[in-house]
Amino acid sequence: MEKLTPSLEDYLEAIWIVGLSEKAVRVKNIAKFLGVRTASVVGAMKILAENDLVVHERYGYIELTRKGTKKAKEIYGKHKMLSKFFNEVLGVDKRIAAEDACRFEHYISKESLDRIVKFIKFIEMCSKDDPLWLSGFRFFAEHGKCIEPDPKRKGRKKDKK
Question: What is the pLDDT of residue 75?
Answer without folding.
Answer: 93
